Amino acid sequence: MIDLERETQETTQVTKGKNGRTFQTYETKYVDTGELVGKREETTTYYATGELKKIKQKRFDANGNLLKERNIKYFKDGRQPEIEME
C-alpha cells in the first residue's frame, strides 16, 4: 500500500523488440529510501502498416505479485478500442 504522506518517483525503461514491438517498465519508488512501491509493464504491438494493434498492461505490487492485467485491442477499421481484463 502506498503511503500518501511520502514522495514517490516513477522511472521508465523502454526496450525495442522485433517488428516495432516495444516493452516499457515503470517502477514507482519512495524518494527518501528508494524502496519499490509498485511496477507496471506494457507491451505494445503494431500491425504491419505501423498502426497500433494491442497494448498489454500488467500491474504489480512491491513484492512482484501480479495485481491486474488487461489488453487494449485496437482496430484498423475505425472501431473503438476494446479492453479485455484478465
Main features:
single chain, 86 residues, mainly beta, 6-stranded antiparallel beta sheet
Explain what the structure shows:
The protein is mostly beta strands and 86 residues long. The chain has one domain. The protein has strands at 8-16, 22-30, 36-46, 52-61, 66-73, 82-85. The two termini are 22 Å apart.
Helix-strand layout with pairing:
Layout (H helix, E strand, L loop, with lengths): L7 E9 L5 E9 L5 E11 L5 E10 L4 E8 L8 E4 L1
Antiparallel strand pairs: 1-2, 2-3, 3-4, 4-5, 5-6
Total beta strand runs? 6
**What is the radius of gyration computed over CA atoms, rounded to a whole number of angstroms?**
16 Å
Describe the biggest sheet?
6 strands, antiparallel
Report the β-strand fraction as a percent range: over 45%
SSE string, helices as H and strands as E: EEEEEE
Number of helices: 0
Described by the principal axes of the CA atoms, the overall outline is elongated
Question: How do the strands line up in the largest sheet?
Answer: 1-2-3-4-5-6
Overall pLDDT score: 92
Q: Helical percent range?
A: under 10%
Distance between the termini: 22 Å
What count of structural domains?
1
Low-confidence stretches: none
Please identify the structural class as seen in this structure: mainly beta
Structure described in brief:
By secondary structure, the chain is mostly beta strands.
